[in-house]
Design brief:
This protein is of the alpha+beta class. The protein contains 15 helices and 11 strands.
């Protein structure tokens, strides 16, 4: 894959993906997320992400929000269990403007008390909004089931109690302890030469003081499968079935990504979709997801259906998992699964911002970015025996947890 990397003395890395397009993209990935919070500070990483857009040493909120929008650009951000990401899209002439803004909001935000107070109300509304969406709430609660008592199980948004308790000191302390300069990658996608990238990178980020605080992420404890059912004021039953899974560094990661895609991944031709939606018309949405993280992963199957159809839907899911545990994929099935997955990855390259973020995360996590050819070679090397081994480990009924939200009678 055609890309260039420049590392500053403070540890910050700049990744450049050349493109002849007049539309450019940039992102800054910080290896800090909700799992890095203290137990009583749930939601702090996400809260800080919001506050980065509020006030810096030289800009107020309006100046931050207008900096790119006034030239037709777009600025946004998100937080996950392990990352904070700020990203922007803009026309080619505005790279300097964008990097200037990144440097300002990430390293010079002042977190004023009045903005902290206002943003608490915004986050509380966001929490209420998610609670009104059972398909979102059940996935968050399911992760809490998988990682009971561990930071990975806690909601990224936090709780009303923890959010209301945030102080400026909490924010400053978390920022200092987790925004490590050697764990920050700035990605740039656009029609620029390396000399320009280095010059602007040095201009805006070389002066940031090196920050290498020690940090140890809490290891996950012992897992045991659980099955929980709750009554909720909803109209449909929602169900999640899943397991802890492989980390991003595990030898089975690529093979399980392939298997998950075959089972219930992107597209209408997944096994779960064909069997449960197309054949029986039971669920409008049914999907499976595998999210690898630095030291563990999450596998889950989600569907929503009418209450009286829940039992049948679960039996059909179990049937598909059993087939994958008991029967090796035939040569044609395996080849089709690989071709589908490879095609989807290739088409995903058209999402330029998604590609840039993916490349930047790869540099952060692995220290390199695989080319498409290398990615495809890994997929093509997956064997039927490997898929069968993974299916028996991940889909073992004794190891699968489940959570159901039923409508209140």
């Amino acid at each position: 894959m055609d890309y260039q990397v420049h590392q500053l003395q403070n540890g910050i890395r700049i990744l450049h993906k050349p493109s002849p397009s007049n539309i450019s993209h940039a992102c800054i990935i910080i290896n800090a997320g909700s799992r890095d919070e203290d137990p009583s500070k749930d939601g702090l990483a996400h809260f800080i992400e919001h506050l980065l857009f509020k006030q810096t040493e030289k800009r107020n909120t309006n100046q931050i929000l207008n900096r790119l929008e006034l030239v037709g650009g777009d600025l946004n951000a998100y937080t996950t269990k392990e990352y904070t990401c700020i990203h922007a899209s803009f026309l080619k002439p505005h790279l300097e403007r964008s990097l200037d803004l990144f440097e300002d909001i990430v390293f010079h935000s002042v977190f004023p008390e009045e903005e902290i107070k206002k943003e608490k109300e915004v986050i509380l509304d966001e929490i209420s909004s998610y609670q009104d969406q059972p398909e979102e709430a059940i996935n968050d609660d399911f992760e809490d089931l998988l990682f009971d008592g561990h930071p990975l199980g806690r909601n990224i948004l936090g709780t009303p109690l923890t959010v209301q308790g945030f102080t400026k000191k909490d924010i400053v302390d978390f920022h200092k302890a987790n925004y490590r300069t050697d764990e920050i990658v700035i990605g740039i996608y656009g029609d620029y030469d390396l000399k320009t990238i280095i010059r602007l990178s040095e201009k805006f980020f070389a002066g940031i003081p090196a920050n290498f605080p020690e940090r140890t992420r809490e290891k996950t404890g012992v897992y045991s499968a659980k099955r929980l059912v709750f009554s909720k004021p909803i109209n449909q039953t929602h169900c999640v079935i899943g397991n802890r899974s492989y980390s991003m560094h595990h030898k089975h990661k690529t093979a399980f990504l392939l298997l998950n895609n075959l089972l219930g991944g992107t597209g209408m031709s997944s096994r779960l979709n064909l069997e449960i939606r197309e054949k029986y018309g039971i669920a409008y949405t049914i999907e499976s997801n595998y999210t690898p993280m630095s030291d563990i992963g999450i596998f889950s199957i989600y569907f929503g259906t009418d209450a009286e159809k829940t039992g049948k839907a679960i039996k059909l899911v179990e049937k598909e998992l059993r087939k994958l545990r008991e029967q090796k994929l035939g040569p044609v099935q395996l080849r089709q699964a690989k071709d589908k997955f490879i095609g989807q990855i290739a088409l995903g390259e058209e999402n330029r911002m998604g590609l840039l973020i993916s490349m930047s995360k790869s540099l952060l996590d692995y220290g390199r970015v695989d080319s498409l050819e290398e990615i495809f070679a890994k997929i093509n090397s997956v064997t039927d025996s490997q898929v069968l081994e993974i299916a028996n480990e991940m889909f073992d009924p004794k190891e699968l947890s489940s959570m159901i939200f039923n409508p209140k009678e």
